[in-house]
Design a protein that fits this description.
The chain is of the alpha+beta class. It has a single domain, classed as GHMP kinase, C-terminal domain (Alpha-Beta Plaits). It has three helices and two strands; from the N terminus they run H-H-E-E-H. The model has no long low-confidence stretch (mean pLDDT 86).
Length: 81
Amino acid sequence: MNHHLLQAMGVSHPLLDKICEITARFGLHSKLTGAGGGGCAFTLLPLDLPADTVASVVAELTQEGFTCFQSDIATHGVTPN
């Protein structure tokens, strides 16, 4: 939803929209980061996402010419009780 709002404001780019389309096919959500205009996007991966799904997403993004980086954060963040 946030990416669509930024898209409506005109700060997205067709390539960033393509990333969102690809990851959405896998049930994931992506959003541009930075100032927009075609630089970078991020996708949050659920902890229980199967490794083969991650590999498929990365393969499809790479096939489209994108470079993927995977990173971990130091905490699990907000979790339901």
